[in-house]
Amino acid sequence: MGSHPRQDKLIIPIRYLWASALIIAVVVILIIRLWYLQIYRGDYYRGISENNRIRKIEIPAPRGMIFDRHGKLTLGNRPFFDLVAIPQYLNHEEQTLAIVSQLLHEPLENLTRMFRQGQWRPKFLPTILKRNLSLHEVSLIESNKVFLPGVEINVAPRRDYQEDTSAHLLGYMGEISSEALKKLGEEHPEQEYLPGDLVGKQGLELRWEHYLRGRRGYRFVQVDAMGRQSTGIEAEQWRLPTQEASPGSDLNLTIDIDLQNIARREFQGKYGAIVAMNPQNGEILALVSSPDFKPTIYQDKLSYDKWHALLADPYKPLFDKTTGGTFAPGSVYKPIIALAALSEGIITPHSTHFCGGGMSLGNQVFHCYERKGHGSVDLKRALMVSCDVFFYKIGLELGVERIAKYAKAFGLGEKLGFQLNREMPGLIPTIAWKKTVSRSPWSLGDIPNLAIGQGENLLTPLQIASLYASIANGGKVWRPFLVKKIISHLGETIFEQKPELLRAITEISPEHFQMMREDLMAVVMAEGGLGRRARVEHFTVGGKTGSAQVVSLKKNRNRLTAVSMKWQEHALFGAFSPADAGPEGAEIALAVVSENDSKGGGAVSAAPIAQKIIAAYWELKAARSKGQLLGKLPENKRAEGKVHD
User: Fold this and answer.
1) How far is 605 from 572, CA to CA, in rounded Å?
2) Which residues fall within 8 angstroms of residue 521, CB to CB, at 6 or more apart?
3) Residue 344 and which of 229, 273, 338, 375 are 20 to 30 A apart at CA?
4) pLDDT tens by residue, 20-56
5) What mean pLDDT, rounded, does the chain reach?
6) For residue 510, is the peptide bond before it cis, meaning its omega torsion is within 30 degrees of 0?
7) 3-state class of 327 per DSSP?
8) Euclidean distance between CA atoms 123 and 93, whole angstroms
9) How far is C-alpha 70 from the chain's CA centre?
């Protein structure tokens, strides 16, 4: 028999072969993995390693400052202290947060909630636990730092809001929403918006966010195992990079902040709005909406009760009434009716109508506010005493469409393109509008109320100021604007707003504009004019008083009779000064709208406020021309008397 190899002798070489192959495969895998980690992904893992001992500290960028037309600082910045936690170094979260809670008397659940909100971010990035610490709170944290690894104080520049800050004008800062984060990130990726950033929420802060916001910088520091910055020789061996923050750009406004503060002071205790502008170019000089709110409420902790109170306030303190509030203009609308009637040849300056205290139309009686009547009045007298019957009659001759034609020539019933907050177009009713809204035609009985600025007419305070600016300048409608220049942190002008003429009113002749300026000057400066409380010593003023009913109330009712404030009439006044300098000479036009004013009509409540503002304008101008500091403005004498409209 032949010999056969033993089976066990064949198994041993096969095992060696498999073992060798396995060892070689393992070595190859290790080599490939080592190449992947050290070479292919070397930079990535080197970065992770560096983050274990090197921390990237963001340097917040100071927001651009805001100056008024004379270079006076209106809104700046100051340092604020924030309490932050670095999750990477917060080893005992519950214990550390409990210590912070005891030190600052801050509810533990609030701190825990704030910390949890930042958990999805990289662990080496700081998460804000509490904003705007007081100096006492800062000292408590710093003196107990040894017990608080991973907890630090960050210093960041934020807005220095003052007690007299106009919230609707300047706006306020608030934490960025998820929607704004996405939108701003797409529109301005170079500015690197991150969750938790503060952005503009209203007013100039919102409108010019892109310019006001700077670009954050960064620096690197070496830290020890407790997350504290290293010092000494080891730290000095490292030259860690730093990128300085770039401040935001500065805004130079058209606002006169001194005039703005005077307007706010004179309007204190009233609700409504004030708008003052330069009739020659559309520059806004003052902008007041009342009631307003303190923008600091968004920097501090805003409680539910405070927020609910703001929302529930019937006079809407969060709402900017200068551009968004719409009001029946009342008798301040009458100059449009007069100019339309003059231009259409319905009346001449010497035409008269008899006022016996009312006018009958069908089975309706339309009363004049003066039930005794004004007798025979011409246009100038009708404006001076605000005779309703005169305007009832010429309004009926004009008709709805011609009234609308001339109102729209002044830019009324549409937005003026003012780039701040929410601008409303107001309403100038037409035949087409009436058919769309009520599917019924106009009747003659609808027109008298339109002719005295009641009914469906609605204007914003900005539109009223623009109307009187156009009368003052002879028929130019300028786009109102607030920002004259934007200056970068390097001192370069990166934006400059030029005056923009929206339209020149050709439907009305220069002679009729001149006549209207003279008649409106008589309303204020002549004896018997209802606007006499707006007189300013040494300067001429033209204007028109107005009272707009909220609901139908008995004419000439006793104002001491109990009437809910929400049903009281609005008091209005439109004006310009000087009134005798021709179309190129007027320097200020303004509108005052006092909402639900219980003291009386525009002559009693709104005209005195306008008088204060116009007098302050001239006083400020004189003081600046002499290089003097403005002290307390003197009281100006005003004529008194029984007036209504």
Assistant:
1) 8
2) 540, 541, 542, 579, 580
3) 375
4) 778 888 888 888 888 877 787 777 666 555 555 666 7
5) 85
6) no
7) strand
8) 13
9) 21
